[in-house]
Structures are given as structure tokens and as C-alpha cells.
Amino acid sequence: MEVANEQTKTVSRSFTMKGGDGPLSYARNSSLQKGVVDATKEMIIQAIANTLDIDKLCSESSKTFQIADFGCSIGPNTFYAMQNIIESVDQKCHAKHGSSASIDLEFQVFFNDHTSNDFNTLFSSLPPSLPYFAAGVPGSFYGRLFPKSSIQIGHSSSALQWLSKVPEEVVDSSSPAWNKGSIYCTGTEKEVAKAFAAQFENDMETFLNARAEELASGGLMVLVMGGIPDGISLCQTSIGKFYDFFGSCLLNLAKKGLVTEEKVKSFNLPLYFPSTKELKAIIGRNGDFSIERSDEIIEKLKHVHALPDAQIYISQIRAGMEGLIKHHFGKEIAEEFFQSYAAKHVETGFVFTANACDNTLIFMILRRK
């Protein structure tokens, strides 16, 4: 019986983006994620203006406003996101109580990610003259991280589509959910899709239960994650087409004899892209939050075509995926793979939107009941 080892099953538990500030680092190759922050800025400003109960969350005895970014990575996108929230809270204070109200309010921002995250680079690149006190909180957000009722606003962007682990069934050749034909949840194989959906639901329930303990009553949780239109399989979308292409490049390594075909078959991306309907159902079952706002943003990839844009995108893919490739296939194969991937990308003129549906970004504002 071919069963993936524990390393395969738990690959994402300590998975982080490529650290440092070099030319291939996530810090220099995360403009797509920055686009997500920019796309949701006005929505966050409006949501805070309309739904934040500043008087309830900030009493006379406590003028400290605490914000947590779950899945902050290395920067600099987390700094932009936190600045947007702080400016929005300041505007809310000013509108409610006049120009002097926000002067006494002190902000503390907690940057959270896995213990293996490059916090050194994160904090060495903090903007000067910070309008907040900064602290790092290492650990998985699929669990408690803060004392009860201590956070006024939580935020997570481009992180919750990453699962806590690959479902064990999809890497077990004796299971009906064995995902031998793909490196991701395409949505077309019923048992595979069921296994990934169950893992996502379990992870989201764990996440929501932890945040329900940590957020103050009336506190807000900003959720931004990759998603798919209702009724569409991921393999029909731009991102799905990319994962198919990525998987074919891995198979090329096997054809060259650099890795075994079994090793490729046991590789699965710990990712799941839900529909908005699916996510709402999970939040509803949790019962600790009300959904104050829900939007879908069409995620455009039409600017990615051939060189030089393709080269930029290749660097961004490497910044996000290199850790996974090294973990599963070994450090010595990573350089060979990404060189091969880049060459095939340019050779084939791969276009992400060819014969594909647009993906969506799911944006939600939750309020702690």
C-alpha cells in the first residue's frame, strides 16, 4: 500500500513564503498580493465607518486599540493593510467625537505567522515613524494566539485558502479520494473534492472558534481569500489552469528521471478555494459572528502574458512555492525545477486566462456577537 509519509501529510503546517529581501524573496515578489490589499482598501474604510462601534470597543479606562494580522508573511503588504485599518479607525473616531478624539487612542499591531516565518526581515523593514506599537506573534492561526476579548480588529488577506495540512485521504493510494491525477483539488473528482472541502471546513471552524475567543464583543474580523464562483470547478479557472501547467512541469522532472513518478503523484498543494456560499454556510454554523458585508471581486490576470511580465510572475510563483517544492522533492531539485518551469512557461507562451473563468476574491466583514 502506497501511503504518503507524515512529511507529505503535514507539509503546510510550517510552510511560509521565501524569506530574506533578495531578488527572489517574497518581500520583493508579492505585487499580486499587494493588489489584493489595494483592491479592498476602500471596502475596509467603508466597513469600519459603517459597522465599527468605537465607543463599545474603547472605554474611558482603556484607550488601546489592538489589531492582529493573521498570516502577515514577510512584508511589506501587511504594513499597507495595517495602515489602512488604522487610518480608517482614526477617521471613525474623528467623525464620531471630533479632531481630539483620536489623539488619545494608542494602536498596537500584532503580526502573526508560522514560527518559521522570517520575522527578522519583517521587523527590519518596518516603516519609520510608526503610528502603532508592533509585536510579532508566532504560531498557526488555526488555534488560539491571544487572550480572551483582547483584539478589536482581526485581519487576514490571501492566507486562509492555505489549509493546515493536505488531507490524508488524497495521498493514500488505497483511498477512493486518492488524487493521483493532479497536484490540487480540481473540483471534478467527487471524493477528492469532498476530502479537501472537509479539511477546509474543519480548518475554518478552528479558525473561527479561536477568533471568537480573542475578539472583543463587537470586534470586527476582515477576511480576504481566494475563491471561485458558485457552481464552477477550480480547474475551469485561471488559477486552476496554472496549477495544471505547474503539475505538468513536475511530471517533466519525472520523465527526466530526476524524481520518481510516485513522488509527483504524492505531491498535493495544501490549498482550497471555496465559493462565497460555501464560506457563508460555515460561518453560519459557527454562530459566533454576524456577516456585516460580503463581496466578490473578480481577480484579473489578463496583464500576465509573455515576457517581460511572465518573468515577473515566475519570480512571484517561486517566492510562494519554493518552500513546498524543497520540502517535498528536496532542496537539490528546486533550482532545476524552477529553471525548467520558467523555460516551459516562455516556450509555450502560457496565458493564464486562455479558455478559463476568472477567479474571485472573497471579501467579508464579520462582527463578533
TrEMBL record:
GO biological process entries:
methylation
UniProt KW Nucleotidyltransferase keyword: no
- Molecular function as annotated in GO: metal ion binding; methyltransferase activity
- Which UniProt keywords are listed? Magnesium, Metal-binding, Methyltransferase, Transferase
Instruction: Keyword check for Cell cycle, yes or no.
Output: no
Q: What is this protein called?
A: Probable S-adenosylmethionine-dependent methyltransferase At5g38780
